Each structure stands twice: as structure tokens, then as C-alpha cells.
UniProtKB/TrEMBL annotation, chain A:
InterPro entries: Fe-S_metab-assoc_dom. SUPFAM superfamilies: SufE/NifU. Belongs to the SufE family. It comes from the Bacteria. Residues 11-131 form the Fe-S metabolism associated domain. This is SufE family protein. Coiled coil: none annotated.
From TrEMBL, chain B:
This is Cysteine desulfurase. InterPro entries: Aminotrans_V_dom (IPR000192), Aminotrans_V_PyrdxlP_BS (IPR020578), Cys_dSase_SufS (IPR010970), Cysteine_dSase (IPR016454), PyrdxlP-dep_Trfase (IPR015424), PyrdxlP-dep_Trfase_major (IPR015421), PyrdxlP-dep_Trfase_small (IPR015422). It comes from the Bacteria. It comes from Pinibacter soli. Pfam families: Aminotran_5 (PF00266).
């Protein structure tokens, strides 16, 4: 599946919920089920800036030419959001990540609910994931 | 039943609510429950009207013009100064300086009094429950002057340990700058005792009144503080304006803060002489409209009745404390003997941010996080709290809605 297709899939899943209570319940559930982060990644360099909760985000570039993300947060809703970002962006090439539209965030209404304040850091996470892709791409081009 | 009970207490909360237009709005399809009053309070119609009236009828620059509008604007601006003087019990109107808010008031003192009076090895004392705005200005000036910043520790109940303060206080102490009421805990600090002890050692005292000015009766002469700073927006007034009180003889001896128009007597390229108090510290065109509306806010409070407001706020605090304590896993942070209507708490296994998001989804506005008091959060070894802070327009039904919202949030999150 392409990134676009996965984004569409998430949007469709969210359309099944009648209320924001249900949407949050789903996001919280995603957060609870996110694969645990290896302790070696729980370091200051992997912290994403956010005012209230701490997010650790690690990226690994594997031999298949794709980037794999793992992450964690002390706040569960943020963790649920990360889980969705990982579903969309993990296991993709740097170019795919850099060009990912990520319109699903807006389409599921997340931008109106979690306004773009410094408190939730959703946009910081997206930015950080794209930064990793850019960094790996530059590194690759230097190696070649 | 509720209406009758409130009337008996003296404050008709439903009549008060009618005066705050924003309380009629909905958030996320639910009636707004605004419990973030320690961050900023909502504004009554009289304050909004004062702003509109100023711009509609007599907007002009003050002090300079001789035309009618300028005279009207100047009169309204200066009338606010008189009202503040009475409101905080200052000896003279020259002791009231308009600022952008509490933060600017503290910075003004650090940059003027501090720059003149602090020298290498001198000591500045603050407390362990300061807002960042009463930490950082002192760190900056201490670093510049090679002075030392000392901190009064906080006990487990969220009270200052006065015995430790007395040990910190020495002949080297030049200024003590302490918060009157903690924005993160609601603790009312014994400022009178702190001031008397500091004065006995020859130090001056600055009181951060950002939170106290709306909840306590302030009398700077009785308190005997040397400086007192507060912001209009926490007292049902507009944002972007506040006042700094300083004892006249201290303000007169201090160097100027910002240079510009208004603060000068005479300017030549060789030398400039400065204006008298309070204008010496009010460079440039001030925030006239908001200063004018500040008076409307203070008048609103005085007319509502200070005692009535205090009693009602205490009733809300007692009710909220009792209700919140019944929630399993909830722990109140800050159990000082004397508190204003603010409750900070944490919940077992739950991050404050998650609770804040889920409450917002029910139209309930609380504050979550470190409340710009990271050092205090470190003291309690927590990343932050959930804070509900109450104003005179809040009701017990709203506290019930908070409790209900919290229970639902916990059920989802744990």
C-alpha cells in the first residue's frame, strides 16, 4: 500500500465513529498497544520538543533502504497519535517520507481538536520524522 | 435550591454570570466550564464596554494634547491610577506605575533597582514556588552583578519553610522577591512575616501579586512591602496591562528603566533630565485603552463586594476539595493551611495532558503542565499537574461537571 492509501484507510476508520469520545477511545487504545521502545533509544537526543509530555522518537535506516521508526511517550493520547504516524511513515524510503502529504491529520479533524499549540507537539513529531528522512537522504547521497 | 443557597451566602452567582458574555458560549458542543482562571479570568461586559467606549468616543494620545479628546483620554487614564492606589492602599498616586503586567513589573525592579543596588557577593532571595517570571529576571541580574540567588525551600504541604528563610537571611541579603500566592499550588504565603524579617536585616522586599490581587484584600502600606506587581487580566480586566507599586523614596532613587517620550523633562544632545514619578518609568505611549478598562474591572470587583467574593471563592474551594478527594487515585498537590480557590492535582497512572485533552472534549477548560513553575514541579518530583482554578462566576454544578469529566477520563485512560 502507498502512504496515500494508508492515510485513506485511517480516515475511513475514523469515519465509523460518531463522536469524539469514541475517536479518543480509539486513539487511547492505539497508544496502549504501541510496541514498547527499546531502552537504548530512551535518550535525550531522541526527545521531541513539546511543552507538556515527553516523546522519544528513534529512526533506524535499514539495508532495504527504508526508515523504521519506534517511539514512546509518557502521555497516552500522544502515543496514539505517534502510533498512527508510525503506521503511515515507518518502513518507507526517505523520499516517500519527505513527500508524504499527511492530510489524514486534518481529515480526521485532529487539527481542530488538538490545535497547533506547543502543548501537544503533534507537528513537532511530524517535523522530526521528516527531518530524519532528509538527514538519511543527505547521508546516502554523500556515500554514493 | 442552589440559587437560594447562593443568595443566602450573599453572592448571586447567576446574576454575576449574566455579566460575562463568554460564559454563554459552547465548546465542543457543550456549555463552557471555564476553570482556568489562574491563567486569566474572563471579562465582564462593563470591561468590554469600557474598551469599546474608549475607541468609539475619546481615543487620543494622553498627557500631550490640549484638545478635548486628549484631555478626556488623559483624565480616564489617570483615573485608573487613582483607583489602583485605593485598591491596593498605596500612600500616593505617584507610587503606581503602569506596566504590561506582573512580569514587566518584576523586570523593571530587577533592571533598575537591581542594577543600582546589587554588587558582587550580594544575595537575592526568592522562594521555591516562584513562577518563572520571578526567577529568570533575578538570575539575569545576579549573573551580571555576580550576586548570588538563594531559594527558600518548600515543605511537603506546599508551604514555605520560614525557619530556613530566616537562616538564608543575612547582612548580604539585598532583596527578597517572593510570590504572595502560588499559581501552581494556591498557597498563600505569610508575606508580612517575610517582609518584617527582611526589613530587620536591611533588605527590601518585592511581592509578586499576580495571583493574590484578585483573591486577597491588598494593602501595601499594612503589608509594608517595597514593591508589589500585578496584572489586570487576572482581575477580570484586559490583557497587556498591569501595575507596579513601589515606595516613593525607593522609586525616586532608582535609575530609569526605558528611555523615550513621556519619561523625560528636557532633552538635549548633551544631557537629558527625567520626568517626575510615576512618568519617569512610563516611556512611550502606554496601553491607554486597556488601562482605562482596568478601572472598570476594579470598579466591578469593588461593587460586587470584596468580602462576598472571598466568601464565595472559599466555598467553591472547600466544595471542590471535598469532591475531588473522593476520586480514587487523585492526589492534591499543595495542602497549605491557607489557600486561594485553586486546586492542583495528579492522578495515578494518568498523564495530566491526557486528562486536559479529554476534559476539553467535554467543554471543560483546565490547565495542565508545569504552570511555568518547573522548579516547583521538580520539588514534588512530578512533570506537572492538572489545575482547576475558580472565579466568582463558577458554580458548584461546574465542579460537579469537572468531577464527572475526570471520572470518565480515568475510566478511558487507565
Amino acid at each position: 500500500m502507498t502512504i496515500q492509501q494508508i492515510e485513506d484507510e485511517i480516515v475511513e476508520e475514523f469515519s465509523l465513529f460518531d463522536s469524539w469520545d469514541d475517536k479518543y477511545e480509539y486513539i487511547i487504545d492505539l497508544g496502549k498497544r504501541l510496541a514498547p521502545l527499546d531502552n537504548k533509544y530512551r535518550i535525550d537526543e531522541n526527545k521531541v520538543r513539546g511543552c507538556q509530555s515527553t516523546v522519544w522518537l528513534a529512526a533506524e535506516y535499514k539495508e532495504d533502504g527504508k526508515i523504521y521508526f519506534t517511539a514512546d511517550s509518557d502521555a497516552i493520547i500522544v502515543k496514539g497519535l505517534i502510533s498512527m504516524l508510525i503506521r503511515v511513515l515507518s518502513g518507507r524510503t526517505p523520499d516517500e517520507i519527505i513527500n508524504a502529504p499527511l492530510t489524514f491529520i486534518q481529515r480526521i479533524g485532529m487539527t481542530t481538536h488538538l490545535a497547533q499549540t506547543r502543548s501537544n507537539g503533534l507537528l513537532s513529531m511530524v517535523k522530526q520524522m521528516k527531518n530524519y528522512a532528509v538527514a538519511f537522504k543527505i547521508k546516502n547521497s554523500q556515500l554514493q | 435550591m442552589q440559587v437560594a443557597a447562593d443568595l443566602q451566602k450573599g453572592l448571586d452567582v447567576y446574576a454575576i454570570r449574566e455579566q460575562f458574555p463568554i460564559l454563554k458560549r459552547e465548546v465542543k458542543g457543550k456549555p463552557l466550564v471555564y476553570l482556568d482562571n489562574a491563567a486569566t479570568s474572563q471579562k465582564p461586559q462593563v470591561v468590554i464596554d469600557a474598551l469599546v467606549n474608549y475607541y468609539t468616543n475619546y481615543n487620543a494620545n494622553i498627557h500631550r494634547g490640549i484638545h478635548t479628546l486628549a484631555e478626556e483620554a488623559t483624565a480616564a487614564f489617570e483615573a485608573t491610577r487613582d483607583t489602583i492606589q485605593k485598591f491596593i492602599g498605596a500612600a500616593s498616586r505617584e507610587e503606581i506605575i503602569f506596566t504590561r503586567g506582573t512580569t514587566e513589573g518584576i523586570n523593571l525592579v530587577a533592571y533598575t533597582w537591581g542594577r543600582q543596588n546589587l554588587h558582587a557577593g550580594d544575595e537575592v532571595i526568592i522562594s521555591g514556588m516562584e513562577h518563572h517570571s520571578n526567577i529568570v529576571p533575578w538570575q539575569i541580574i545576579c549573573e551580571e552583578k555576580k550576586a548570588v540567588l538563594k531559594v527558600i525551600p518548600v515543605d511537603d504541604n506546599g508551604e514555605l519553610i520560614l525557619e530556613e528563610f530566616k537562616k538564608l537571611l543575612t547582612e548580604k541579603t539585598k532583596i527578597v522577591s517572593v510570590v504572595h500566592v502560588s499559581n501552581a499550588l494556591g498557597t498563600v504565603n505569610p508575606v508580612k512575616q517575610i517582609i518584617d524579617a527582611a526589613h530587620a536585616k536591611g533588605a527590601v522586599v518585592m511581592v509578586d501579586g499576580a495571583q493574590s490581587s484578585v483573591h486577597l484584600d491588598i494593602n501595601v502600606q499594612e503589608m509594608d512591602c517595597d514593591f508589589f506587581a500585578f496584572s489586570a487580566h487576572k482581575l477580570y480586566g484586559p490583557t497587556g496591562v498591569g501595575a507596579l507599586y513601589g515606595k516613593k523614596h525607593i522609586l525616586e532613587a532608582m535609575p530609569v528603566f526605558q528611555g523615550g517620550g513621556e519619561m523625560i523633562k528636557e532633552v538635549t544632545f548633551a544631557k537629558t533630565t527625567y520626568n517626575d514619578l510615576p512618568y519617569k518609568y512610563e516611556a512611550g505611549t502606554p496601553n491607554i485603552a486597556d488601562v482605562v478598562a482596568f478601572k472598570a474591572a476594579l470598579d466591578f470587583m469593588t461593587e460586587t463586594g470584596m468580602k462576598k467574593m472571598r466568601d464565595y471563592e472559599h466555598e467553591l474551594l472547600a466544595y471542590a476539595t471535598e469532591q475531588l478527594e473522593q476520586i480514587e487515585g487523585l492526589k492534591i498537590i499543595g495542602k497549605a493551611r491557607e489557600k486561594t480557590s485553586l486546586i492542583s492535582f495528579i492522578i495515578d497512572k494518568v498523564h495530566p495532558q491526557d486528562v486536559g485533552i479529554l476534559l476539553d472534549n467535554r467543554g471543560i477548560a483546565v490547565r495542565t503542565g508545569h504552570h511555568c513553575a518547573q522548579t516547583l514541579m521538580d520539588r514534588f518530583c512530578i512533570p506537572g499537574t492538572i489545575r482547576a482554578s475558580f472565579a466568582i462566576y463558577n458554580t458548584k454544578e461546574e465542579i460537579d461537571a469537572l468531577v464527572e469529566g475526570l471520572k470518565k477520563a480515568i475510566k478511558l485512560l487507565v
